[in-house]
Every structure is written in structure tokens, then in C-alpha cells.
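Hey L., structure's done. Input below.
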Amino acid sequence: MTYSEFLFSQLFMNHIQNNITRYNEVEYDLIFSEILRHHELFLISDENIDTQSEYDCIVDYLEKNVSLIK
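Output:
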């Protein structure tokens, strides 16, 4: 696991623990594939830019793409 993957996974879990999302009730053994999928999507997303820190880019991606349930 690279640092980028680790950071993304930690921020992803933090995001779903602190927000109401469709992933809140997903079991840990099933969430892993979703984290990997979102990491791949993040890498090609508009939020992955060089003018911000990787941390901030990931947070932006999560806020925009791991949507809250209303």
C-alpha cells in the first residue's frame, strides 16, 4: 500500500464516520472494494490537482463524490 492509498483510505473512513452516506452501514470486508474504486476515480478526477495538497484534494473529492444522504 502506498502512502497515497493509505491517506485516501483513512480520509474515506473518517468521512463516512462523520457524515451520513450510503456507506455507513456497509461492513468492513465489503467497504474495502469501495475504497479502492473511489481511489481510482479520485486519481482521474478534477479534484486531483497540483495546486493543492493531496490531503485537500482527497477531502474535496470525498465531499463532492461520496454524497450525503438527505
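The mean pLDDT is 93. Residues 38 and 65 are 9 Å apart (CA to CA).

-- N.
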